[in-house]
Design goal:
two-stranded parallel ribbon; D-Maltodextrin-Binding Protein, domain 2; alpha/beta; single chain
Length: about 230
């Protein structure tokens, strides 16, 4: 908006599903989504005469995080699944201290949850005792306040108040996301209602420009496409 003062931009959050719903309903120009559109959403869109067009704008990796005082440093995909299924309830079972694990997850409308569900849970359900949060920021905050908590957040939400765990011995980073070695990574999308025109296409070109939007992607803590 600094570079284009005549273009007002308003943003609202609430999860990837809400963004895609807004594109289908025609209440937004661009839907940000951290997952690809589902078949049932495409069907609903087409029934309404809407043709969502995806643009890949960045990459992200989803990091398991714990309180900085937690001695655990690395966790396997199998251990993560067992914790989130409720099969492992005590940190001592994964090499930690003898304390109950507080499991923090995202709600089901979240694209981050969808990726976690697919890549970590392999479509198994997160156990009902998990505490659900509405955003990456809320998960980070909840973990920062609880010594025995575990959560998961996008790379861009990592801060000094939480500790990221390596997964299967691999650190989540720009390099390991792009080369595919970090096991919980994903592309991030912007969807438009049909092929974008006018200010919308200018905005997308800005986001995809290596020296402009993609530079900002990196500064925001995500992984640029290039």
């Amino acid at each position: 908006m600094k570079e284009n003062p005549d273009v007002p931009i308003s943003i609202s959050g609430g999860g990837s599903g809400n963004g895609i719903k807004a594109i289908i309903d025609g209440t937004t120009d661009i839907a940000d989504s951290s997952r690809f559109i589902k078949d049932k959403e495409v069907k609903l869109a087409v029934e309404k005469g809407v043709y969502p067009v995806p643009f890949r704008v960045a990459y992200d990796c989803i990091m398991p995080v714990v309180h900085p005082s937690n001695p655990i440093k690395d966790i396997s995909m199998d251990q993560l699944k067992a914790i989130y299924k409720g099969e492992v309830r005590n940190w001592k079972n994964v090499g930690g201290i003898d304390k109950k694990v507080v499991v923090i997850s995202r709600d089901t409308s979240s694209g981050t949850y969808e990726v976690w569900n697919k890549k970590v849970m392999k479509k198994d359900r997160v156990y009902p005792g998990a505490l659900l949060q509405a955003s990456n920021g809320a998960v980070a905050q909840a973990v920062a306040k609880n010594k025995y908590a575990i959560g998961y957040i996008g790379l861009g939400y990592l801060n000094k108040d939480v500790k990221a765990l390596t997964v299967n011995g691999v650190t989540g980073s720009m390099e390991t996301t792009l080369d595919g070695t970090f096991p919980i990574s994903r592309p991030l999308f912007m969807f438009t209602q049909g092929w974008p025109k006018g200010e919308t296409v200018k905005f997308l070109n800005y986001v995809l420009h290596p020296a402009k939007g993609q530079k900002l992607v990196g500064e925001a803590g995500y992984v640029p496409l290039y």
